[in-house]
Amino acid sequence: MNQSDSKGVDILAVCAHPDDAELNCAGLLLMAKAKGARAAVLDLTRGEAASRGTPEIRQNEAAVATRLLGLSARDNLGLADGQLAVQTETIQRIVAKIRHYRPRMVITSHWDDHHPDHQSTSMLVRQACYLSGIGNFPLDSADDKAAPHRPEQVLFYLDRLGHTPHLVQDVSTVFDKKLAAVKCYASQLYDIDTQEVTTPLAAADFLEQWQSRHRYYGSLIGVRYGEAYVLRSPVPINNPLDLLWGRDGIV
Ligand SMILES: [Zn+2]
Questions:
Q1: How far is the CA of 119 from the centre of ligand 1 (A)?
Q2: For an engineered disulfide with 37, which of 20, 32, 86, 150 has Cβ 3.0 to 4.6 Å away?
Q3: Residue ranges of domains in the chain
């Protein structure tokens, strides 16, 4: 699926595999969309190395989830699953997409993640976001003529490894929809009738674990469900009162 939109987006999630965005940052995308923002997802691979499902099945699953989330665009670089590495050609291809979609915010994996593809994606996206703003950074294809563009903010979502979040997005009101988007990827999840191999994602209690993480992160800010993010640079405070959001203090 290479559904693209030339009008640009406010937020672009760049993820290694179809379902990464749904599992990790779909709540923030839904909350932003409710505020009128345009959000898109760029998957770097088609997930063809996964132990379960096929690229065709995963493509169809991603299409259904994309419609459910109301994304403005969903794109796929078609890179080799399980072989993502920080190399210039891949950075050039991501830069071309950043200059095409021109997001103000980019979301990607944390660099210290259990999956090597997620680690590589984090480093690739960090470097691409910076290099995209350099006017004469050479691109792989002469057809990529979009002007330089550097996103204002890069957020790194937390997956299974424990890191202290810098930001927690309250996703309580959209959690049911996020869960429904994850369940679109049925080939990756628990199925009592399947003969396919079991993976951590396909374990019978995976969704319970996943939901519990959201409950934990939500508890850190006093809400039911949260998504956790870290930043590499501090958030500037312009108005100190912006730090007050009307809840009892959590210390
Ligand atoms: Zn993944």
A1: 10
A2: 32
A3: 11-243
